[in-house]
Amino acid sequence: MPARVVVLGGGVGGTLVANLLEKHLKQDATVTVVDGTGMHLYQPGFLYVALDQANALWLTRDERTLLRRHVELVVEQATKIDPAAQTVTLSRGGSLPYDYLVLATGSRLDREAVPGYDGTHDFYSLDGALRLREELRRFRGGKILVGVAGIPYKCPPAPVEFVLMLEEHLRRRGIRDRSGVTLLSPLNRAFTIESASKLVQPIFEKRGVELRTFFNVDSVDPVRRNVTSIEGESADYDLLVLVPPHRGSAVIEASGLGDAGGWVPTDRNTLQHTAHERIFALGDATDLPISKSGSTAHFEAPVVASRIASLVRGTAPKTAYAGRVMCFLETGGGRATSLRFDYAHPPIPPRPSRLWHWAKWAFNRAYWITVPQGRVG
Amino acid sequence: MTPTDLTLTRSIDARGMACPGPLLNLIGAIRAGQVGDVIEVVSSDAGSRTDIPAWVAKAKHELVAVVEDDGFAHFVVRKTH
User: Residue A146's domain spans which residues?
Assistant: First the structure.
């Protein structure tokens, strides 16, 4: 009897694991993806939509079109996981039994956790990006603050990219001289990786982007247009763009499979749940202290697929996750750099150049026909 | 004092985690924790030796201990407010 593999979540990680498993195991397994929307979102595009550089249409695809023919897709919310019975309960009352379960459930935004959040904007969802785009179209000058209201959050470089691209956007529209752009950095530098900060901070200075350090957003007063930090400072704004707090998926919390933030306790090398060997997790869903990004999920997926294939076949596992991540960092002005690292090797980013900007552009464009199918690795 | 003399509420092994990095993980744990929680972050990043004490001082929490190990260090922080 073929092994039953159920994958929760049709994002980068879930889609890639499902396709790789079907490819490796063929008739030895049935692979089912459960996704609440049935639509696959390319989240790195939100940034470009918010800044009016891209149309929202290219960010979504029908998940069915990205999955191999023999992978089954169930468009329904998973509501509960029972690890003892090895079943997943679905929102319409049905249930799916599994031999191996993959949690690719991503993260969800918890805007309500920040007092006063309603008066702010973000580019962390499609709705948020579209709303911010409208607000920026109306913007005629003033003080814009960009801050972080919770940790962990997806794609740690995104706020840095956003301020640099925003500065360029205001300049192009001829309203830069009437506008202030400030990054409220959670850290004592612009960027988490020191070598990347050293590249980025001179660009901030050159472009007149203000950097306020150790400012972790705590609450917002939308009436007085003021934001306060957990470090006890405050700042006034005309337009506030915040990275919302993130939590793990509701099904993880409802099933008692996560920590206090809803993140899945995951082994950093095997990507197995630390308490349930038949459950794997990848991407945003894990509690690993690594970046929550599509790139992380992309590099973890082949490890999860390979390890499950070994378990199904009764052979020794051949691979482990070594912490590999690769991503691009836009620095504005048509230039970008890249960050490549793993657990043992810190990143050494090259100088920002047009080459990396075009590489990022090409990756964005080619995403749909490469990443979900496992054609780049 | 070593970290083992304390009752840790949470320990984060951030060795080799270039991004988001040990300090961001510590800030996240402090944000999510309760007053009185004792949180340990293990870091192999040389920058942590200055960054972590600087943030803890600025945010007015308590740096309980810094214990050097072979190529990494344990930072133990108590959430005070």
Answer: 117-243
Q: Which residue of B has its CA nearest to A158?
A: B20
Query: Which residues touch A336 (CB under 8 Å, ≥6 apart)?
Result: A328, A329, A330, A352, A353, A356, A357, A359, A360
Out of A214, A243, A272, a domain closes at A243
| B30 part of the active site | no
Interface residue A337 vs chain B (CB under 8 A): no
CATH code: domain of residue A233: 3.50.50.60
Residue whose C-alpha is closest to residue A326's, from A358, A300, A353, A302:
A300
Across the interface, which of A261, A268, A339 has its CB nearest the CB of B19? A339
Q: How many domains does chain A have?
A: 2
- The model's pTM: 0.94
Q: What sign results for the dihedral spanned by CA atoms A75, A80, A81, A82?
A: negative
- Contact assignment for B19 to A214 by CB distance below 8 Å: no
Task: Verify that A81 and A146 share a domain, yes or no.
Answer: no
Query: Domain-by-domain residue ranges, chain B?
Result: 3-78
Nearest CB to A152 within list B18, B20, B30: B20
Per-residue pLDDT in tens (0 to 9) along chain A, 377 residues: 899 999 999 999 999 999 999 999 999 999 999 999 999 999 999 999 999 999 998 899 999 999 999 999 999 999 999 999 999 999 999 999 999 999 999 999 999 999 999 889 999 999 999 999 999 999 999 999 999 999 999 998 899 999 999 999 999 999 999 999 999 999 999 887 778 888 889 999 999 999 999 999 999 999 999 999 999 999 999 999 999 999 999 999 999 999 999 999 999 999 999 999 999 999 999 999 889 999 999 999 999 999 999 999 999 999 999 999 988 888 888 899 998 889 888 888 899 999 999 998 888 888 988 889 888 76
Stretch 4-43 of chain B: residues touching chain A, C-beta under 8 Å? 12-25, 27-28, 30-32
- Cα separation, A69 vs A331, whole angstroms: 40
Asked if A178 and A277 sit in the same domain, the reply is: no
Residue A130, H or E segment: helix A126-138
For domain B3-78, which architecture applies?
2-Layer Sandwich (3.30)
Q: Which of A243, A261, A291 is the last residue of a domain?
A: A243
Q: Is the ipTM of this complex over 0.85?
A: yes
Q: How many CB atoms lie within 10 A of CB A198?
A: 13
Tell me how far CA of residue A375 lies from CA of A103, A284, B18, in angstroms: 22, 22, 26
